[in-house]
Every structure is written in C-alpha cells, then in structure tokens.
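Lecture 7 notes: from sequence to structure.

We start with a single chain of 531 residues. Read the sequence below before looking at the structure.
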Amino acid sequence: MEKLKKYSLFLIPVILILSIVFYIIWGAYSLYTQVFFIVAFIILVIIGILNYKFILELITKTSSIKKFLFFIQFVFLFCGLIFAYLFLSTINFKIDFTKERLYSLSKETLKVLNNLTNDVNIYFFKPSSMSDPVLDYIDNLLKRYKEKSKYIKLKTIDPIQNRTMALDYDVKENGSIVFETERGKIIVSPRKVLDQNMETEEIYYKGEEVFTKTIKNLTLYKPRNVYILQGHGEINPFDKSFYGYRTLFESLQQENIKLRELNFLKTPEIPEECNLIIIGNPKNDLSPEELDKINLFMDNGGNVLLMLEYETSFTVNDILSKAGVFYLENLVVEDEGYLPQLGRATIVPNFINHEITKNLINNRKIILMPTTVAILEMPEKDKKYNYEISPLLTTSKTAWGEVSKEEIKANKVKFDKKDLKGPLNLAYVIKRKYENIESRIGIIGDTDFVNNANIDKYSNFEFFINVLNYLLGREEEIGISPKVSGIKAFKLSGTEKRLLQILAFIPLIIFILPGIIVIIQRKKLYKAKDK
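Now the structure, written as tokens:
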C-alpha cells in the first residue's frame, strides 16, 4: 500500500502532461478533452486522499514551513496575475494597435449608435470549438459595438449545441450574424465582411461598413417595396435550380427590401406603395394596356429596372424608348481579353465612372456576364424627354454585337457589316424628367450574372445592389469604402493556436523549475546532515 501511495505521486506530472496534449490536439470543448479532465480530476482527488498524511506533514513540519511559505507566495502571485487580467478585461478601455485600425469605429458608426433608442439584438452563431481569424475579427468588432451603446444586445450562440435556435433564425452557415429589431431581422453572412483585390490578392475587412449599414436599415430606413413583373416568362424569384433566382431575392430581403410579385392578371393596377418594378427578361409580349400602366407609373415618378437577354420580347422597347435607349436583338462577342474556358460570349465588362461603379473601380473589382446584349442610345432628334443618361458598363473596342441568328445557332459567329461595332454599352441608369417629375430607369443587358449559379461570383451582386439602391434613391448605401484595407491574412489552425498558448507558459516553467531543484537539493543536504 505504501508503494502504491509513493508511485501515485508520479501520476500527477503524467496527468498534467496528458492534459496539455489533449488541450493542444482537441481543444477545451472537445468531448475527449472534457472526459479526460473529469477522469483526471477524480484521479487527483484519489491521490490526495491516499497521501493526505504526507500533505499534512508538509504543512505542519517546521523544516517544511519555509518551502510551504514559498509555495503559498507563488500561489498568491499566480492568482494575483489571473485576477489582474480578469479585472483589466472588464474595463471598457481598449487601444487599437492594428495598423489598419481594424477595431476603431468611425464617427458615422458612433453617430448611428448614439442615436439608437430601441434595442438591437445581435446573435453571432459561432461554434465554440471553431478557431478562425475571420470569426475572431467579427467577434471582437461586435464587442466594440456593444461597448459603445447600451442598446446593442450581443449574444454568441453555438449553432451545433443550439441547433433549434439556428433553425428558428434560418442560419445556414457558421459565423452568420443575425441583427433583429422590432421592425424585423437581417442575416449577414460572414462572407460579406471580406473582400479581395483581384490583382494584389490583398484581403479587405469591411465589417464596420456591413454592420453599420445593417443597423441603419433596421432602425432608420423604411423597407422599400419592390415588385417583380410576372406572367410573360420573366425570371422566377422562387426557382432554386442552378439557373433560378431564389438566392438573388433572398439577398435583397436582407437589404431591407420587401419583394412582391406583380402579375396584371391578378393585380390589375400597380400598387401605390410600389417603389420600383423589376422587369427581368420577359420572353412573351406585354400587352398595350400593360405597357401603358408601366409608362404611367414612370410618368408619376415610379422607378423601373429592366434586365434583358438575347430572347427578350421586343415590346420592352416601348418602355426603353421613354428612357432614350432601345434594344436590338444581338449577342455580344468579345474578340480579345475573354476567358478561353468560358468562351467569347462571356463578358468581363469595363466599368464607366459613376457613383454606382466608383467603389468597384477603386478596388479593382470585376463582374462576369454570360450571354450579354448591347443597349443602344436613340438619336437626339428622337428623344422626347429631358434625360440624364449614364452608361455603366462597356466592352473593349474589339467586341461586337452579333445579330445573325443563323451564326449564333451554329456557334460560328463572325464580325461583318451588319453587326454592331464595339465598344458597346451593356448597362445604363437614366434620370428622366416628365412635367418636373423625376423617375429613374436602369437597364442591364444580362440577367444570368445574378442567377443562383453566378450571383456569388466576383462582384456581381455588389454591382446589382448598387444599381438597385441608386434607382431607389438610396445613394448613401452605394460605394461605402471599406474601413480597413490592404490586409494580407494568414491563418493558424486550432492546434497551432493552442500550441502557442502552451509555449507562452514556458518562461513560467523556467522560473519555477530552478526553485524546485533548489528545494530537492536542500532536502538531500538536510538528510545528509541528520545522518
């Protein structure tokens, strides 16, 4: 029994080493680590019970009092450091030492937070066992928001352990942030806080831009009512297939935009609360009565976004003519600078400087547009209104608009005199005044660039939402530059981070070890003197 007591003491350093190994490999929240910690605690209690006499002697023996006092001093020092750390972490004062001021909130954000009068609940769905620099960035930034306003209520939720709440809030990816007020909720994907310069591959962190915009949408702005024309073979907002548009309209809902269908067979008149109508590639003709209703809507200050394709019905020209442009059946083909793997009909257009495209140009972003059509301006003599026509996208000089159906069907396009010569404009926004009433019209020569397959490619959605915000008169939402930029991210794995944490204790161990050696040597010396 005495031998068992003696050898059981050697289990203490073994258990300590194994605990460190478990923590490094699996982390503190792993089931393996938690089970091991429980077992280790039980073993340590048993060792303590078996050796209680030895522990009692260590405390009571005169020869051991100095060692015991030294031990007590060390314990107090260690506990004091822990207390100081915990106390300082509660003080609401932090200095941002990051070069790009990652965690410093701008004056605009502070103004928004100071003007809050109702609670904004923020739910950050982050798995407790996940270690990721982007999620850590989001976590720290959200804490700064909470520190600056008593109305910000932040809660971190593990979507794995609390699956019910994740389902209730329709959270589909780890790291999602849900902002909720009395007006509703907006889900922000963690992918929205990151961007990348396509040339330098530098990563842009823009969490403040996204979070502040979301809070403003939920507290300051009224939701905009956007209607999607249906009944003529237009894009389907409920189609989840590869070429559907469900993702687009789910994304628009997160931008504080209320979406509804507009089918003239079901709704004879355009609702009064309608702020904008989206007409997305109607393949069948619109009736004269329907066209009259849309034109009257624009005459009264209504806004319209038309998205065209090669097969779009020519009846849209009745609307386009009121905007000073027209559509001619064509397919844009690029002769240089195209992506060989995608073909010459997939266009990477050039941005033309405008408040819609300014931020995209400054950050050297691109969009990808499959099967695009060119949009042409009407001659000045045929324009009937006071226009401010602004092209947004253009092709290279070597591109052309193929008009031959036979060549397109045979996939043997070739430039000739009948084709439209480049450079060609692929998108416009137009301010039109009629009897001193202004309406805004947007025209984009493609719909596929924001379907389910392409919306997340490059800056496709960013360009689309910028156009939509401009048409809705929300220019302040366009082109807000990222608060920080030029950060080249690197990523440590969870194991590497835990290893660094353990390595940080090495100086402490180096400090303790000589003391232990001195104690052992003195103990041997006292024994030798006793003999």
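Residues 492-531 form one domain. Keep this in mind for problem set 3.
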